[in-house]
Design a protein that fits this description.
Elements (H helix, E strand, L loop, with lengths): L9 E5 L4 H12 L3 E6 L2 H14 L4 E5 L5 H15 L4 E4 L14 H29 L7 E6 L12 H21 L4 E8 L5 H12 L9 H9 L8 H12 L10 E4 L7
Parallel strand pairs: 1-2, 1-4, 2-3, 4-5, 5-6, 6-7
Helix pairs in contact: 1-2, 1-8, 3-4, 4-5
The site of nicotinamide-adenine-dinucleotide has 30 residues, from helix 1, helix 4 and helix 6.
Length: 269
């Protein structure tokens, strides 16, 4: 790994207390990036930031961020700039899922998922872009906004429809955002993990048993690997971090409006 590949990049990451957000943060910092970690789980982001600062390459700060609050998104951007001097990249990673069969989707389930995954993403994109626009061109490289999509940005399953709607929204904001923001030297891309063993999926696995999709806990990931994933295994955050880092690096400068699948060949288009 090149410890300087992301040197000079100041990156805000939402939902960075655990899972892929935390793994990416540590990986980016190991390549020289400074990272601002926001999450509703403040103890969690503080612990990740402490690990990064102890490791001693890129620096980290951590703060409370509920992505459904415009003010807290703006505060996270402001903290990034105050600490590191500017913001170059914003990674919209915070996300939640609670499965429901179609006829059992209620307003609470819809609102909770859409508010965090879709509205929270829009607010984060806007507040990051507002600062990037104010900074103006800083070097030869574009600013970057990255949205985390999913396999269900490209298809839908019967038991996670609000989540799928939110991840289609992530794709719509990549495509529309790319067209809207290039005039300000900002690219918008994203990546779409498949089945990733994180706390999110551990909870999903339990919830899928509760709604009757699986008989026993621990079946869902293996079942999907066996029946739907070309590479016949589910993934871990380490499988995702390389593509995420590439999208933060100068090597992806001539890309915008793209959602890259990282799913072991689950969805091919
Ligand atoms: N795990 C998977 O299989 C999978 C697959 C495809 C996409 N994704 C997406 O990847 C992203 C990361 O998922 P993960 O699996 O690492 O999940 P995770 O549950 O391990 O981490 C998500 C983080 O988001 C935080 N969060 C929740 N609500 C928030 C809010 N309102 N404001 C700020 N932070 C909030 C949580 O506290 C948590 O730290 C999410 O967008 C998720 O939808 C996950």
């Amino acid at each position: 790994m090149d410890p300087k590949r992301l040197a000079g990049k100041n990156i805000m990451i939402t939902g960075a207390a655990q899972g892929m957000g935390a793994t990416n943060a540590e990986y980016f910092a190991a390549q020289g990036a400074n990272v601002c970690l926001g999450d509703v789980n403040v103890d969690g982001v503080n612990a990740v930031a402490a690990r990064i600062n102890e490791a001693g390459n890129g620096k980290a700060i951590a703060l409370k961020l509920d992505v459904t609050s415009r003010k807290e998104n703006a505060d996270a951007v402001a903290a990034t700039v105050e600490e590191f001097g500017s913001i170059n990249i914003a990674l919209m990673n915070a996300g939640v899922n609670t499965p429901r069969m179609f006829m059992d989707i209620d307003e609470d389930n819809w609102d909770m998922i859409m508010n965090i995954n879709a509205k929270g993403m829009l607010l984060g994109m806007q507040e990051a872009a507002r600062q990037m626009i104010a900074q103006g061109p800083m070097d030869d490289h574009p600013y970057k906004i990255l949205n985390v999509g999913s396999i269900v940005s490209r298809t839908a399953f019967l038991d996670v429809i609000p989540y799928s709607c939110s991840k289609y929204a992530a794709l719509a904001m990549i495509i529309g955002g790319a067209k809207a923001l290039w005039q300000h030297n900002i690219t918008v891309n994203g990546y779409a993990p498949g089945v990733v063993r994180t706390e999110l999926w551990e909870q999903l696995d339990k919830d899928l048993v509760e709604i009757g999709m699986f008989e026993k806990e621990g079946q869902s990931m293996d079942h999907l690997a066996e029946t739907m994933i070309t590479m016949k295994r589910y993934s871990y955050p380490d499988d995702v971090k390389g593509t995420a880092a590439f999208l933060c690096s100068d090597e992806s400068d001539y890309m915008t409006g793209q959602l890259i699948m990282i799913d072991g060949g689950m969805i091919m288009q």
